[in-house]
Automatic annotation (TrEMBL):
InterPro entries found in the cross-reference section: Fumarylacetoacetase-like_C, Fumarylacetoacetase_C_sf
tRNA processing in keyword set: no
Keywords: Hydrolase, Metal-binding, Pyruvate
A GO molecular-function annotation: metal ion binding
Name under which the protein is recorded: Fumarylpyruvate hydrolase
Coiled coil: none
EC number(s) given by UniProt: 3.7.1.20
Amino acid sequence: MHIEFALSTPTIPIQGGDSVFPVRRIYCVGRNYAAHAREMGFDPNREPPFFFCKPADSIVNVPTGTTVEVPYPPKTSEYHHEIELVVAIGRAGNDIAVEDALTYVFGYAVGLDMTRRDLQLALRDKGRPWELGKAFDQSAPIAPLHRASEVGHIDHGALWVKVNGEDRQRTDLSKLIWSVPEIIANLSTYFELQPGDLIYTGTPEGVGPVHRGDIMTGGITGLGELSVKVR
């Protein structure tokens, strides 16, 4: 049997033009804010970061000034928001030194790591991988990328999300346990990073459920906002 596949590479718009950023892989950092580690029942001591992945086609583009709908996913009754700073990698490297790490950054964006929390916790408690809780369809909404050459390197500023206009998560990026350069350096000891890789850098405290009809509005100082409605 002969089967033909028409596969397309997911892309993210780049702010300020018609260019797009092709997405190769999505890496995510777990428990990278102390208060969130505590609310999840863990000691926030500065242990080495750990990572999990989402598929590239879990990306949902959220153009500036629009509200994009995502479906309430199956097999969960605890669909949670996690607002995050997203880092886009612009050149290849492995075993990257911390002091060189920012030279590998193409840009930054606001992103949501949507989570089936009940599945994640059940899997975690059994010592099993998190994919069913984290790597599902349309679980990675993201705003347009901003080039680092235009906005600089983001190491502080407000990070927040509201649900139906009410604050849910709010912190400052300076509270990251592991900074962006440290994340890149550590991750590059496990994988050769490539242009097209995204790193979701972790979420602060205040994660919680959203329901059908809810609207999440989140942002980062200097990177704008995104707006997502649960269908």
